[in-house]
Automatic annotation (TrEMBL):
This is Glycosyltransferase 2-like domain-containing protein. Keywords: Glycosyltransferase, Transferase. It comes from the Bacteria. One of its GO terms (molecular function) is glycosyltransferase activity. Belongs to the glycosyltransferase 2 family. It comes from Anaeromyxobacter diazotrophicus. Gene3D superfamilies: Spore Coat Polysaccharide Biosynthesis Protein SpsA, Chain A. Residues 10-129 form the Glycosyltransferase 2-like domain.
Length: 306
């Protein structure tokens, strides 16, 4: 293990995340693979989450803050520039990693040198941490140009890739709220993506829909269809995708007015059998018992701040 050359860089951008950041950090320190560095990148927080990040005492942790709210796309590109490791993965400030995520995804990329980015299904949890279901399992085709256009092929928060690939293929700030979809679409013709069978991310999802953000995502998706669709599925196929997006947006608008949006959110996930729910809940409990140096009474260690 080398501080100057870790195996993996974990990038965690955060903004006003004091309520959830501790559990995200616990999931990192719970990893079975410990040869990592952590970039904690503040995006202009005002709620105390920066102080929480700076309290973490571990030489593998770098805290970076310029005091400005620049947005997640800027921070994702910044992390690719600053990463020291050959592999880069992202964790959102309200999600949690499965303890085997780093171990499993590093092993996958080392065993498949032709793969640029590997992701996984995600386990959806509510704001209290209760298991809601699984999403993204059993994908038949991942990342060919047509399937990448029709639907986002990789869960961004569960993805790990080669740092050089992320540095050479930056997120485009013009595609806000669907920057990952645009990135996969743009790079699919010359890249190789994969999804593991096992889920390695616990994704926290509110029961209700933020309609403003959802509408922006739909609008950006339509820009993506119009940009990449004609060459991949023809003008008629592009028109169908755009029409489907408008219909989906209308459905969510109506559901929000009727107070039924929570039902649509629930339908995104596949219910898990009781034994699978129990296993996932046990993993979450294990993560929540993990100590974070500097936050849980462990001896202070040198850390790096920026």
């Amino acid at each position: 293990m080398s501080l100057d050359r870790p195996a993996v860089t974990i990038g965690l951008p955060f903004f006003n995340a004091a309520r959830t950041l501790r559990e995200a950090l616990q999931s990192i320190f719970a990893q079975t693979h410990q040869d990592w560095e952590l970039l904690l990148v503040d995006d202009g927080s005002r709620d105390g989450s920066l102080a929480l990040a700076r309290a973490v005492d571990d030489p593998r942790v770098r805290v970076l803050s310029d005091g400005v709210n620049r947005g997640v796309v800027y921070r994702l590109n910044q992390m690719a520039e600053l990463a020291r490791a050959p592999y880069l993965c992202r964790l959102d400030d309200d999600d949690l990693m499965h303890p085997r995520r780093i171990e499993a995804q590093v092993a996958y990329l080392e065993a498949h040198p032709d793969v640029d980015v590997v992701s996984s299904p995600l386990i959806s949890i509510d704001e209290a941490g209760a298991i809601r279901g699984i999403r993204g399992a059993g994908a038949a085709r991942v990342g060919d140009p047509v399937s990448a256009l029709r639907g986002c092929p990789l869960a961004q928060g569960a993805a790990m890739g080669r740092t050089r690939w992320f540095a050479e293929n930056r997120y485009d700030p013009r595609y806000l709220r669907a920057e990952d979809h645009e990135l996969w679409c743009r790079t699919a013709p010359h890249s190789r993506f994969a999804v593991t069978d096992e889920a390695y991310l616990f994704c926290r999802e509110p029961a209700e829909v933020n309609l403003r953000k959802y509408v922006l995502s739909c609008r950006t998706d339509r820009r993506i269809y119009r940009q990449y669709g004609p060459a991949r599925v023809g003008r008629r196929g592009t028109a169908v995708l755009v029409a489907q997006s408008f219909a989906k947006e209308g459905l969510y608008r109506a559901a929000c007015r009727l107070g039924l949006a929570g039902r649509l959110v629930a339908r995104r996930n596949r219910p898990e059998p009781p034994e699978a729910v129990a296993r996932a809940a046990a993993v979450l409990e294990q993560v929540r018992r993990t100590a974070v140096p500097g936050l849980d009474g462990e001896p202070a260690r040198r850390r790096t701040q920026g």
